[in-house]
Amino acid sequence: MATDASRSRRPGRQRGFVLVTMALAAVGVFAVVGLAVDVGRMFIAKNETQAYCDSAALAAALALDGTTTGIARAHAAVTASANHWNFGTTSISISSATFSTAAAGPWVASPNPATGYRYARVTATVPVALYFLPLVVAKSTFSLVSSAAAGQIAITSFKRGVAPYTAVSTNTTGPSFGLVVGNSYDIQWPQYNNTRAYCGTISPNTPEKCFNSPPCSGDSEATLIAVVSNWAASIDGFWGGGSNSLIAAEVLDLVQLEPVAVGTNIYPFLSNGNKASEAGYLDQRANQDTDISDSTVTAYLASSVHNGRRLIPVNIVDPIDPTHTNVTGYGMFLLLTNGSPSDYYVKKTNGNDPYCAIYAGPYNIGGIGPGAGGTTGASAVRLVQ
Description:
This protein folds into 2 domains: 4-153, no CATH class; 157-380, no CATH class. The protein is 30% helix and 23% strand. The protein has helices spanning 4-63, 68-79, 199-202, 221-230, 244-252, 278-287, 297-302, 344-348; strands at residues 84-85, 90-91, 94-100, 119-129, 141-154, 157-158, 166-168, 184-188, 260-261, 311-321, 324-335, 355-361, 363-365, 378-383. It contains 8 helices and 14 strands. The strands form 4 sheets. It has a 5-stranded mixed beta sheet with strand order 3-4-5-14-13. The relative contact order is 0.15. The termini are far apart. It is an alpha+beta fold. α1 (4-63) packs antiparallel against α2 (68-79). The longest helix has 60 residues, at 4-63.
């Protein structure tokens, strides 16, 4: 039988064991709570910095145009990113942008020359303060790193987004198809007249003689020959609707008469004649820009106030025979102006005259400048990592 003394000692030993167990359990509970709280903070910080990297990478990729100036604009776009972390209270101060010609890299901070650089990667690092985990690990902050990459991905077809004009080139190699940035090209040709002197007798050696007004200065002899030989008097490069409301929607909002893709024979869509309202809508679009004074691509793109409305995307086509005019790609052209407000196209064009515009570069959807280029001359910015 147990003695009275042994009975009196047992509860004390049990109470001590419970205290030890509770103390150990408390340490475990604090460790679990600390893990939950601090890991939860890291999870939130990861989402916040990832959102920053995603948006900054998209903005940087949108700024790329194949030049070192575009690289500088991309760096500036990353710096200007408004996303914050730490529950939206703290700006991200440690970030970097690098660039590549391919989605897999290699990545370069300041490529020079920048030709073909179409991808941007943004990396951000933030110090997440740890409040509970330092009780069990010797660390008071955790350096959390996030990154994202975006690039200009080639677009081959459009259901909407291309103006009702064409630029002609017999060069089928993108992204520029033989066009030179800064040169003026016909996006709609002057009236054809095969009875003009020297048109029928020595054409195609003097194809410019077959037009009532001189074509735009940038088009090559091969281009003029292709237009004279395969379009003649029936077409001038316009492929939009005939009513004023349709022309307005096509010029101002890039609503298309038909879907087009690289390889499409656009010849059946090409319309006859010069619609009188076109000039007014081209001027209206130009006047919607915040820079209607700069007359060169370089000056326009360098302007801090331009908004891109003077840039108009069109099909680049190759008339290969009298029934086939194939879409080979796309390009962006700068509309001409003559002051504020501009009435350049109303004053400078009539039924005999061409509509000229300056080639600015590849079409970068959503950008206020040209893109870096791809095989089709058109691209859309998307996340790739």
